[in-house]
Automatic annotation (TrEMBL):
Its EC number is 1.8.1.4. This is Dihydrolipoyl dehydrogenase. Its cofactor is FAD. It comes from Actinacidiphila acididurans. Keywords: Cytoplasm, Disulfide bond, FAD, Flavoprotein, NAD, Oxidoreductase, Redox-active center. Belongs to the class-I pyridine nucleotide-disulfide oxidoreductase family. PANTHER family: DIHYDROLIPOYL DEHYDROGENASE, DISULFIDE OXIDOREDUCTASE. Gene3D superfamilies: 3.30.390.30, FAD/NAD(P)-binding domain. Its main location: cytoplasm. The keyword Cell cycle does not apply.
Length: 462
């Protein structure tokens, strides 16, 4: 069908990552005729270079830690080391299983999949492999790539990005990680579990700086305990090669040396040279600008995912893609409340949150209108069994709804589902306190936190 020049698709999608393929699947489900153009692999960053491979490495790291620490549970094992080739095989098997599944899904929904590098050639078409693919509407979903700093050249060997780190054929003896955001702390955690001596360099005053400050501080305490080093509040100045690795100098003159430098300072949009500006699409620093319905300023063009300046998360890409598909199919599209998007950082311990921080709540509602409560996981039986520590912090508007849930502790990412219902349904603490949480689960800690906030604490000293 793609070869038939007379075909006009309902929707032509450029980029087959989380945002693009979600839009394709939903649009096809709603009866639209869809072309999906991808230059590399269907599934994009999340499946091949992001969410899935990092979580596989982190899980392998967790197993290594369990092997090392099993005696405290009365189980005798010996940790003999990391077979990195086998770790990669495990990770790659997970990816290839999901990849096959996704390919099957796209085929079964009768999406026309076109492999090739596309370029926007008019407000209603994309050129790929020497052909013009016409659509009534075009969706831009070309995603993002790792960023670097001026003068800092990523060589893929000693100075690497997350893409390289995911396929590194060795466990580095030592690593400096530039950037203490989500990607930086996840690699710090996995590498430390593998045996690497890790130092994180973060220019802002805290690790995971977009989280509530309490979560950042808890993570910093936990990382200190794990022997993960970090330098906060001073920016990077330069990097140079040494005989055995890399030396990093900070703005205050402090230096650090290690075998590798992982640059994890964020990701920038893929938009250059793709025809967007020529077709009049409004942009800002490479990001495509959209309204709350993911519409660009060009009526026939929408954009989603990491290409637009919203949260860079796979599930945000899915939601934005679905929104576009439903809008184009004539369904009522509901704008996304980005504060209501669950966020998880999968390091050990995990950091999970939904809603707004205490600082933002005070800004929005006034300091005297904001109530907070911290529930320590020390009071939670399941967390004790797992030997994990941490806290759940709730942010509430006085006499009103819970507007922020911030959690730190092993497996806390799994608790964010209920937390997001609480935030998105604007639940009152007393309403959540009324719900019965299974004992002994870590989920119970969320229930206990709300019992305490509703004024009837159970297993809580506060
Ligand atoms: C290390 C790492 C860990 C992450 N972990 C998580 C996580 O745990 N949870 C989470 O929610 N998010 C995570 N993310 C973020 C998540 O991967 C992204 O938010 C998500 O992949 C964005 O989807 P997208 O569709 O916008 O872009 P992408 O997934 O980048 O897809 C864009 C696609 O467009 C294609 N493309 C680009 N240009 C062209 C062209 N000219 N022609 C044809 N095709 C083109 C690319 O090949 C790519 O496949 C992580 C990211 C990284 C890097």
């Amino acid at each position: 069908m793609a070869n038939d020049a007379s075909t006009v698709f309902d929707l032509v999608i450029l980029g087959g990552g989380s945002g693009g393929y979600a839009a394709a699947l939903r649009a096809a489900q709603l009866g639209l005729d869809v072309a999906l153009i991808e230059k590399n692999k269907l599934g994009g960053t999340c499946l091949h270079n992001g969410c899935i491979p990092t979580k596989a490495l982190l899980h392998a790291g967790e197993i290594a830690d369990q092997a090392r620490e099993s005696e405290q549970f009365g189980v005798k094992t010996s940790f003999e080391g990391i077979d990195i080739a086998a770790v990669h095989k495990y990770k790659d098997d997970v990816i290839s299983g999901l990849y096959k599944g996704l390919q099957g899904l796209v085929a079964s929904r009768k999406v026309t999949y076109i492999e090739g590098e596309g370029r926007l050639s008019s407000p209603t078409s994309v050129d790929v492999n020497g052909q013009r693919i016409e659509g009534r509407h075009v969706l831009l979903a070309t995603g993002s790539v790792p960023r670097s700093l001026p003068g800092l050249v990523i060589d893929g060997n000693r100075i690497i990005s997350s893409d390289h780190a995911l396929v590194l054929d060795r466990v580095p003896q030592s690593a400096i990680i530039l950037g203490g955001g989500v990607i930086g702390v996840e690699f710090a955690s996995a590498w430390k579990s593998f045996g690497t001596d890790v130092t994180i360099v973060e220019g802002l005053p805290h690790l995971v700086p977009v989280e509530d400050e309490n979560s950042s501080k808890l993570l910093e305490r936990a990382f200190r305990k794990r022997g993960i080093k970090f330098n906060l509040g001073t920016f990077f100045q330069s990097a140079e090669y040494t005989e055995t690795g890399v030396k990093v100098t900070l703005a205050d003159g402090k230096t650090f040396e290690a075998e590798v430098l992982l640059v994890a300072i964020g990701r920038g949009p893929v938009s250059q040279g793709l025809g967007y500006e020529e077709q009049g699409v409004a942009m800002d620093r490479g990001y495509v600008l959209v309204d709350e319905f993911m519409r660009t300023n060009v009526p026939t063009i929408s954009a989603v995912g990491d290409l637009v300046p919203t949260l860079q998360l796979a599930h945000v890409g899915f939601a934005e893609g679905i929104l576009v598909a439903e809008r184009l199919a004539g369904l009522k599209a509901v704008p996304i409340d980005y504060d209501g998007v669950p966020r998880v950082t999968y390091c050990q311990p995990e950091v999970a949150s939904v809603g707004i921080s205490e600082a933002k709540a005070k800004e929005l509602y006034g300091a005297d209108k904001v109530v907070t409560l911290k529930y320590n996981l020390a009071g939670n039986g399941r967390s004790k069994i797992l030997k994990t520590s941490g806290e759940i912090k709730l942010v509430q508007v006085r006499d009103g709804a819970v507007v922020g849930v911030h959690m730190v502790g092993d497996r806390m990412g799994e608790q964010v589902g209920e937390a997001q219902l609480i935030y998105n349904w604007e639940a009152l603490p007393a309403e959540v306190a009324q719900l019965i949480h299974a004992h002994p689960t870590q989920n119970e800690a969320l229930g206990e936190a709300h019992l305490a906030l509703a004024g009837k604490p159970l297993h809580s000293h506060d």
